[in-house]
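Figure caption, in words: inputs first, then the predicted bound structure.
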Amino acid sequence: MQEVIKKVLINEEQLDKRIKEVAKEISNDYKDKTPVMLCLLKGSVSYFTRLCENMDIKLVYDFMKASSYHGTESTGEVKVTVSPSMDLKDKHVIVVEDIIDTGLTLSNVMKILQSYEPASIEITTLLDKPARRLTDGINPKYVGFVIPDEFVLGFGLDWDEEYRNLPYVGVLKDEYYK
Ligand code: IMP
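Bound structure (inosinic acid present):
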């Protein structure tokens, strides 16, 4: 399975340590708020699970799927195929994202979420690739790792739906990166 990986960018130990730090920070900020942890499917599943397990406050889970990503280039086009199951009005929502690349997907998702009139809404992303940003409206409050402009996979992130189950974040070999 590792034949498409150029190098390990973030290993299991680094992931574990940093996610625990972010979980602690969010827990401190959301004491007594019972946030809705909103997992953006499918790439955020690994981060979402590890993050929530390490938060020591009351919280609830919800899920949303709004993506369109083919190969290694984002189309920016968003289609919601799974909507949140809860009424988010007056709730404190924390959007849990795997990676922010151009930011176009999340910017569309945020517009949809704002229309539900939550009490507050913040973003946490495991990975941030600021060099690729095409919108200035996306400011994640809790960032796991800022990474360079390379296509990464593993720990939830896919390459054409595969490799999500790698326990680390790896860089795709150049020959596959368009
Ligand atoms: P954006 O709209 O360009 O910010 O792309 C957001 C989505 O594209 C993420 O939620 C990922 O699913 C996917 N994506 C962006 N960069 C990568 C990458 O390096 N590896 C795997 N998926 C990525």
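The pocket of inosinic acid is lined by residues 43, 67, 69, 74, 97-106, 151-153, 157 (CB under 6 Å).
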